[in-house]
Structures are given as C-alpha cells and as structure tokens.
C-alpha cells in the first residue's frame, strides 16, 4: 500500500503526517500561535515565515515518528486551500518540491475535506453521505460530503462574517482573557450560568438562510452588554451565556441539515469541536434525532498534517488523477 506524505500550512500550524491505508503512522506539528498572540489574531506574513522555518524539521520529525524514510513516500498531498494565501503557498510549494525530488505524484487537498477525512484514521471509513460541521478559527461551514475522493465538497452554508472560533477569540479579548480565547472561555464558562444572559441566536429567523451563520452580531451583543454593565463583568456568566448561544446555533443547524439531507452521521470537526458545550449539545441533539455523531480526538480536531495525508490516502486508493505541478493556491472558501 502506498505511503502518503501530507503537508498542512493553511493557517498558523505547520503539520506533517504520514498515512498508509487509513492508518496514521506518524505526524509532527509546529505552531506559530505564540508569535501571533500580541496581535490578537493570525498575521499571514508571520505565519508564512514560520511555515518556511518549520517545514523541513517537521517532515524529518514525522518520518522519525513513523519509522520510515523519505524515499519510501509514494505520493505527496498538500493543502491547496482554503486558507491564508501566503501560508498555503509555502506548504504547496514544499509539496511540489518533495513530489519532484521523489518523482511521485502530487495531490492538492481541500483543507475542509481534510478536517472531515481525519476521522477515518480514528473511526474507520465514512458512510456514503454525511454532514460535517467544520468550526475553527478560520471557518464555520456546514458541508455535505459524499465520497471524499470523487465528489466535490458541497457547502450547505458558511458564516457571512466571523468564524465561530474567531468569535470565541474576540469575546475572550473583550473579557480580558488571553488568546486563543476558545479554550479559556470553555474553562471559565464551567463556573458560569449559561442562562444568566439571553444573548441572541443569530441567523435563526424565518427569512435567514437555513444553514448560514453569523457571529459578529453576537460578539457586538456581548460587547454592548459588558459596556452597559456597572463594574467588572461577571466573566463566568458572560462566557457561559455566549458559549451557549454559539453551541445552540451550531448544533441546531447541523442536526437540521442531517435531517433534510438524510445523513445518518454528523462529523463535528475543527478547533471549536473541542468545546465541551458544543460537543455536549451535539451529543444530546444527535441522539434525539437518531444521528450518529463522530468527533475526532482533540489533537486531530485542530489543524494538522495527518488530515491532509488522510485525504491524499483516499485519493490515491481511489485512483484519482494527481494535480499538475502548476497547481496554484486557492485561498478562497470554495475549491
Ligand atoms: O482548527 P483550528 O486549530 O485552526 C483553524 O482556525 O483552522 O481552530 C482554532 C480555533 C481558535 O479560534 C480557538 O479559539 C478555537 O479553535 N478553539 C476553541 C476551543 N479550542 C480551540 N473554541 C472553543 N472551545 C474550545 N475548547
Ligand atoms: Zn482548519
């Protein structure tokens, strides 16, 4: 069976993974998250430079972890988009260089398909049709997935403004909590009452797109509430109530999509899938709707190289045509 080298550089993680026949042999991850902390968000140029520095060491580390040699690699898969243009370009260029040097085929991978496909490494093959909710710092997308190696990824809906993770990060910032805000809000919210403040559920009106999302209004609602409150804000209650609004909106729409498209499986993936309330509510609502919920382990939920190798592995095993070396980065949301 072919050995696939996967490379992920769409945002601030430099990920390299080695997969053979649905099995993750080894991976390595470097993050420039600390370098972006003082800017409150990812700075594309800093991310790109960090990828450049980290890529070769991460390839070496992943090879060592997998106990294989570079010359054993049979195909290279690299994220082609969506993502930060300059960041994607670094990984894609490296992927091309490895493919040429090793004289093996190159595959350009849809980053969101990667977030879904990573679950194959943990829980086995995906059903012929499933819905994926990809919620991270960069994306909030509801996808309808068929055969990942043959069918295009269908976007049922995306956020029209901030991504869910971005909303977590921005709300954390206005509460004076550190970046990245998601894990901190998750932790702080444990001591709060999710019903303390009735924040809006954006994009859930009768005329709103069924599967669209919007989080910037929610963030503004939190900011207004904090401004209008005398004295220091009750951080735990604000965090818990905000988190409840996000979890409610995300899971309501995801389960509705499973019903409409007769998908018996919901994949919950991306950094925000690590959120305890999003997971808890998804479990509850999926159980009530007779939908199977699949959530990869937290370390595979965030950006990594294994997820890109997982798609490469599906493509190679399905006999898909490799990408030409002229393949360019596709930064926008739809590939
Ligand atoms: O998938 P990811 O590592 O990178 C991309 O953005 O593609 O996701 C990172 C995002 C950040 O916004 C972070 O705040 C959020 O995921 N996140 C969380 C949690 N852990 C990470 N958000 C809510 N609750 C969490 N436990
Ligand atoms: Zn991602």
UniProtKB/TrEMBL annotation:
Tagged with keyword DNA damage: no
Q: Boundaries of each Gcp-like domain copy?
A: 25-309
Q: Which residues bind Fe cation?
A: 111, 115, 303
GO MF, one term, reads: iron ion binding
List localization entries: Cytoplasm
Q: Where does substrate bind?
A: 134-138, 169, 182, 186, 275
- Cofactor(s) demanded: Fe(2+)
Predominantly, its location class is cytoplasm
E.C. code:
2.3.1.234
Name of the protein in question: tRNA N6-adenosine threonylcarbamoyltransferase
Q: Which HAMAP family match?
A: TsaD
Provide this UniProt record's keywords sorted from A to Z: Acyltransferase, Cytoplasm, Iron, Metal-binding, Transferase, tRNA processing
Q: Which reaction does it catalyse?
A: L-threonylcarbamoyladenylate + adenosine(37) in tRNA = N(6)-L-threonylcarbamoyladenosine(37) in tRNA + AMP + H(+)
State a single Pfam family of this protein. TsaD
Report the superkingdom from the record. Answer: Bacteria
Tell me the classification of the organism that encodes this protein: Bacteria, Bacillati, Actinomycetota, Actinomycetes, Micromonosporales
Keyword DNA-binding carried by entry? no
GO annotations of cellular component type: cytoplasm
Enzyme class (EC, first level): transferase
Q: What family is this?
A: Belongs to the KAE1 / TsaD family.
What function does this protein fulfil?
Answer: Required for the formation of a threonylcarbamoyl group on adenosine at position 37 (t(6)A37) in tRNAs that read codons beginning with adenine. Is involved in the transfer of the threonylcarbamoyl moiety of threonylcarbamoyl-AMP (TC-AMP) to the N6 group of A37, together with TsaE and TsaB. TsaD likely plays a direct catalytic role in this reaction.
Query: Cofactor note from UniProt?
Result: Binds 1 Fe(2+) ion per subunit.
